[in-house]
Write a structure and sequence with these properties.
Helix content is about 70%, strand content about 5%. By secondary structure, the chain is mainly alpha-helical. The radius of gyration is 34 Å and the shape is elongated.
C-alpha cells in the first residue's frame, strides 16, 4: 500500500505541461483576507455572493451523498473497494473527453462509469479464476487505473492544449469551478440514494449482513450488489469535479467510520454519517474562504479526520477514553468481588462456626502481601462490605494484636452471590456441557462477575435448584443470603 500511494503522488507532479501542479491554484474558495476574518465570516454565512451559495449547496449535497453511501461501504467492509472505484473512473474521464473533444458532462460521466465497472469486472475475474485475494486485486486495479488515467490526461494536455487543462480538477477538485449547472446531477444522485435506501432498506440490510440467508429467501443478492455499485459509481462521479479522485474516497469512508463509533443501529449510522459529511464539507469550505492559502478539498478531509479522532477518543459507546474508564472500573470491581469471595471461602474453611476471621488468613487465601491485602480491605470497608476490629491474644507470654474482619449484611450478600454464580456455572458446565470437574474453574472465574440475576435464576431452574457444586461444596441459596448465614450442617465434610 505504501508503494501505491508513493507512486500516486509522484505521478501527480508531472501532469501539467509546464511543470508541477499548483495544489492551491483552483482549489480554495476565494475570499479577501484583508477584510478581517470576522467580516469574512459574516460575508460567507450571509451568502453575499451568489457563487458562495452555489458552492455551499454543492459541498453540502456532496457531503450528504458520500455520507449515506459511505455508511453501507463501511458496514460491509468495502472501504478499499470504494477507494478503488473512485480511482478506477479516472481513465474513463480522459476517454470521455477525447471522444467528445469537450468537457461534456454526460460524456465524462458515462466514460467514468464504464471505466469503473470495467475495473470492478477485472477484480471479480481475478477473484473468481485466480488465487489472488480481494485486497490484492483491488490494490492492483487502483494503482494501474490511476496511473493510466494520469498518463491519458497528461497526453491530452499535450495534444489538445488548453481544452484539457481543467481535467486536473478531477484529481484535486475545484470548488471555485462549481456552477449552477453542476448541481442537478448531484441533487439527482441524492434523490436516487435516499429513495433506494427507503424502498430497499430491508433487502440491503439482509444482503449486506447475511447474504446466505438472503439467498435462501429468494433475494437476488448479486443483482442488489451490482445496483449498489452503480449507485456508488454515480455518487463518486458526481463528486469528482468538486472533491477530486484523491479525496472523494476519504469523504466516503471517514464520516461513516465516525458514525460507526457512535451507534449500533444502521438507520442512526446513515443519519449521523450524512450529518458528518455535510458538516465537514461546510466547515472545510468556510475555513478555505477565511484564508486563500487553504485548499478547500484537503481542508474538508482534515476536518473530517479531526472530528473522527475526537469521536474516537471520547465517544460514549466505543471511545478510547470511556472504554479505558469502563475497563478500569470493571477491574476494580472484579478485585473487590474476588476479595469478598475469598472472605466467604475463609469462613467456609471454618465451616461457618465463626462470623469473623483474621486479616492474615485472608492474605494467605488471596496470596497477597500484607500491604496489598490492607488496601483491598480498606476498599471493602469504605464501600460498607466489611468491618475491622483489633483482637489481642496472649501467645508465648507475649501480647499479639491482629486485625479481625467481619462481613456486613451487604458484604455477605455480595459474597454469596459471587460464589453462587461461580459454583452454578461450574455445575452447569459439568452436567450440560460435559466438562471435566477440574477444567471448569478458570471459565467460572470469568463468568461469575458478568452473569446477571436473570441468568442465575434460569440456571437454577435448569439444574433443579442444586445444593452442591461439582466439588461437593455448598451453593449459597437465596435463603442463605436472606438469613445472612449458612448452617454448618449444610457444609460438606472437608476431606
Amino acid at each position: 500500500m505504501f508503494f501505491i500511494f508513493f507512486n500516486r503522488f509522484r505521478l501527480l507532479s508531472v501532469i501539467s505541461v509546464g511543470g508541477p501542479v499548483n495544489f492551491l491554484s483552483a482549489a480554495q474558495v476565494a475570499g479577501h483576507p484583508e477584510n478581517g476574518w470576522i467580516n469574512q465570516a459574516i460575508r460567507f454565512w450571509t451568502f453575499e455572493d451568489s457563487s458562495i451559495l452555489i458552492i455551499v449547496l454543492g459541498v453540502l449535497l456532496i457531503g450528504l451523498n458520500c455520507g449515506l453511501m459511505g455508511g453501507y461501504i463501511v458496514t460491509r467492509r468495502l472501504s478499499m473497494f470504494g477507494d478503488t472505484l473512485s480511482h478506477a473512473v479516472l481513465p474513463g474521464i480522459a476517454v470521455g473527453f477525447f471522444i467528445s473533444q469537450s468537457r461534456n458532462e454526460l460524456a465524462l460521466m458515462l466514460g467514468a462509469m464504464l471505466s469503473g465497472f470495467f475495473g470492478v469486472a477485472i477484480i471479480s475475474t481475478l477473484k473468481k479464476f485466480t488465487k489472488m485475494k480481494a485486497d490484492s486485486a483491488m490494490a492492483l486495479i487502483l494503482s494501474a487505473f490511476y496511473a493510466l488515467g494520469i498518463s491519458l490526461i497528461a497526453h491530452l494536455q499535450q495534444t489538445t492544449g488548453s481544452g484539457a487543462a481543467n481535467l486536473e480538477n478531477y484529481l484535486f477538485g475545484s470548488l471555485v469551478g462549481l456552477s449552477q449547472s453542476d448541481l442537478p446531477p448531484i441533487i439527482f444522485c441524492l434523490i436516487c440514494i435516499v429513495l433506494t435506501f427507503v424502498i430497499m432498506n430491508k433487502e440491503l440490510l439482509i444482503c449486506g449482513f447475511d447474504p446466505s440467508f438472503a439467498r435462501s429467501i429468494g433475494l437476488p443478492v448479486d443483482l442488489i450488489h451490482y445496483f449498489l455499485w452503480v449507485l456508488l459509481a454515480f455518487c463518486i462521479v458526481s463528486s469528482l469535479q468538486t472533491i477530486g479522485v484523491i479525496l472523494v474516497s476519504a469523504l466516503l469512508i471517514i464520516p461513516a467510520s465516525t458514525a460507526w463509533l457512535l451507534t449500533h443501529r444502521m438507520s442512526h449510522l446513515l443519519i449521523l454519517s450524512a450529518f458528518f459529511g455535510g458538516t465537514c464539507g461546510l466547515l472545510g469550505c468556510f475555513l478555505s474562504f477565511l484564508n486563500n492559502r487553504l485548499a478547500a478539498g484537503p481542508i474538508i478531509v482534515l476536518c473530517s479526520t479531526a472530528i473522527f479522532f475526537i469521536v474516537l477518543f471520547f465517544s460514549p459507546l466505543r471511545g478510547m477514553v470511556p472504554s479505558w474508564i469502563r475497563r478500569r472500573k470493571q477491574g476494580k470491581k472484579i478485585r473487590w468481588e474476588n476479595t469478598l469471595k475469598a472472605c466467604y471461602q475463609v469462613l467456609e474453611d471454618s465451616r461457618f462456626n465463626d462470623q469473623s476471621f483474621s486479616q492474615s488468613l485472608l492474605a494467605r487465601r488471596r496470596r497477597k502481601s500484607d500491604g496489598e491485602i490492607e488496601k483491598e480491605v480498606d476498599t471493602l470497608i469504605r464501600q460498607g462490605y466489611a468491618t475491622r476490629s483489633r483482637k489481642v491474644s496472649l501467645q508465648s507470654k507475649e501480647l499479639l494484636s491482629e486485625s479481625v474482619l467481619s462481613l456486613t449484611p451487604k458484604g455477605w450478600e455480595v459474597a454469596c452471590r459471587i460464589v453462587r454464580n461461580h459454583r452454578l456455572w461450574e455445575l452447569y458446565l459439568t452436567k450440560k456441557a460435559s466438562y471435566a470437574p477440574d477444567h471448569v474453574h478458570d471459565d467460572a472465574e470469568k463468568i461469575e462477575h458478568i452473569i446477571g440475576e436473570q441468568t442465575v435464576r434460569r440456571l437454577e431452574r435448569i439444574l433443579s435448584n442444586p445444593k452442591l457444586d461439582p466439588h461437593g461444596k455448598p451453593i449459597p441459596s437465596q435463603d442463605d443470603i436472606d438469613r445472612g448465614w449458612i448452617s454448618s450442617a449444610k457444609v460438606a465434610p472437608q476431606g
